[in-house]
Amino acid sequence: MASIPKNAIKELFSKSTGLAITDDGAELLANMLEEEARKISKSAVDNAKNDGRRKITKDDIIRCSSKG
Asked: Quick one: 23 exposed, middle or buried, by C-beta within 10 A (0-12, 13-18, 19+)?
């Protein structure tokens, strides 16, 4: 089960597409987004550690998107 609430996914989906999404579709999308967030988080941690820091910055996350 995803940590991102299904209602948040449904609202985001509706606002961005004008369409509704089913409960199981919203749950799947939430799970996919969480998995992507885990990957980004791990990469951001690596960036901070490589720079000798123990705190993640916006730049650490931005650098993750340039690695893809």
From this structure: exposed
H-type alpha helices, 1-68: 6-17, 23-50, 58-65
Between CA 41 and CA 19 the distance in angstroms is: 30
CB 9 within 8 Å of CB 30: yes
Q: Is residue 56 part of a domain?
A: yes
pLDDT tens-digit profile of 5-45? Answer: 999 999 999 999 999 999 999 999 999 999 999 999 999 99
Tell me which residue has tokens 């490589």. 50
Which range of residues forms the domain containing residue 49?
Answer: 6-65
Residue 59 is assigned to a structural domain of this protein: yes
